[in-house]
Amino acid sequence: MAAGNDGDEIERFMAGLERRNPGQPEFHQAVREVANTVVPFIARNPQYQGAELMERLTEPDRIIAFRVTWQDDAGRMRVNRAWRVQFSNAIGPYKGGLRFHASVTVGVLKFLGFEQIFKNSLTGLPIGGAKGGANFNPQGKSEHEVMRFCQAMMLELHHYIGPDRDVPAGDIGVGKREIGYLFGQYLRLSNRFSGGVITGKGQTFGGSNARTEATGYGTVYFLQNMLATRGEDVAGRVATVSGSGNVALYAIEKLAELGARVVTASDSGGFVHDPEGIAGERLAWLKDLKENRRGRIQEYAERFGCAFHEGKRPWRVPCDFALPCATQNELGGDDAKALLANGVVAVAEGANMPSSLDAIHAFLDARILYGPAKAANAGGVAVSGLEQSQNALRISWPFAEVDERLKTIMRDIHDKCREDGREDDGFVNYVRGANIAGFRKVADALLAYGVV
Predict the structure, then answer these.
(1) Which of helix, strand or coil describes residue 237?
(2) 156, 198, 194, 192: which is closest to 176 by C-alpha?
C-alpha cells in the first residue's frame, strides 16, 4: 500500500471514482488495485503528469446497453439485459470476451473491461480493452434456447463490432457452442465471411489451434516462469485448482503433464478433493462431464470415490501452488491466510480478479510468488490475437506453433512484470509490475494522440 502523499492522492482519486460510479464494487476494487501502484508511478514520472491519464483510463469510451428478447421452448417470450463496454482502443481495436451469467451487471463488465486494457497491453499485441455480456444463464437451457438467445443478442451487437472496431470472444458461459451461434448469426446479418470479427471460433470456420487450452496453459506457463526465478519447478509438487470450466480444465491438464499432482476442482456446488490427482482417465472423465454432459462436479466424487465438500472452496487443502480459475473474489483474506499457513509458495490466477484486496496484500506481505490475473491469465486473449492474425492472413498455424508462440508471449509478459516489479530487496511484486508495464504502453499512446 502507498503511504504519505501517495496514499492521500490515491484516496482522492478513488473518492471521485466511487462518486461517479455508485453501486459498482467490483469496478471500484479493480481500479483501486491498479491505482495503488500507478498513481505513485505517475507522481514520480513527469511525462505522465497533467494529462489525467487515470481519469481517462477509468472512463469507458462508451457503454452500449440493450434488451435481448428471445423465445423459450415453451413458446414464452423471455427478456434479458445485455451490454458491451468499449473501454479503450488506444493501442488497437476493442477486444474482450462476452459473459453469460445471472450475476452479470454493468459494474461487473466495467471491472472486466478495465482489467482487459492492461492485460491486452501486456501481450504486446495491438488490441484494446472491452468486455460484454448478458444476465442470461445457459445452464439448464436447451440447445435451441441457447441458440435463439445468441441469435437474438447478435441482432443488436452486430452494429458495434468488426475486425478493426471491436472483436468479442468467449468468457464464463460462452464457449465454442455459443461463439458458433453468435458468429453464424453475424454471417447471416452481414452477408460476408469476416473471421476476425469474433474469436474462439471452431477450427472448421477460422478458429485457432490451442485457443481452447490457451488461458489454462498460459497460467501454468506464467507459474513456471515465476518459479524459475527461484530455481524451482512444477514437477513433483501439489496444486489446488478451483473451477472446472475451460480455464481450470486445461490448467489441470498442463500441470499434470508437467508432473504436478492436482488434487482439487470445483463448481458452484462445492469442490472435490482427490489426493490421487486429477490426471489421465480421471481428467478425461471430468472433461467429458463438463464439456459434453454439462454435469456437476459432485458426480466426479461419486465416480472416483473421493471427498466432495458441498458449498466450499478448496483453499484449506494443503498445497504448494494455488490456481484460482473460477470467478472473481473467490479467494478472500482468510483463504489466503489458510493457504499461507499450509505452506503455499506460489499463486497464479486463471480467473479474472479471483483474489480480494485483502488476499493480495497477504500474499505480497508473505513475499510468496503471486501472479495477478491481468498477467497470468493473458494467454487466452493472446491466442485470440493470434487467431485474428491467422484470419487476416487466411492461414492456420499448427498446434505446436501456436503453443510455442503462447509460451513466448507468457515469458515476455513475465519478464515485463519482473522488470517493473522488482523491489530494492530483490523481491518481485508482480502486481506492481503488471500494472506499470500495462499502463505505460497505453499511456504513451494516449499522450501521442493529444486530447482524445
Answers:
(1) coil
(2) 198
Tell me the C-alpha distance between 193 and 147, whole Å. 20
pTM above 0.85, yes or no: yes
- C-alpha cell, 29: 476494487
For residue 330, give the amino acid letter.
E
Give 235's contacts (C-beta < 8 A, 6+ positions apart): 258, 259, 260
Beta bridge partners of 133: 83, 99
Q: How far, in Å, CA of 410 to CA of 246, rounded?
A: 18
Say if residues 121 and 441 touch (Cβ distance below 8 Å): yes
List Cβ neighbours of 85 (8 Å cut-off, separation of 6 or more).
Answer: 60, 63, 64, 106, 109, 110, 112, 113, 130, 131, 132
Please write the tens of the pLDDT for every residue from 274-321: 999 999 999 999 999 999 999 999 999 999 999 999 999 999 999 999
Cell 506464467 belongs to 222
Question: What does each C-alpha distance from 269 to 21, 312, 346 come to in angstroms?
Answer: 32, 8, 26
3-state secondary structure of 78: strand
Is position 141 annotated as part of the catalytic site?
A: no
- From the candidates 131, 201, 290, 416, give the one annotated as an active-site residue: 131
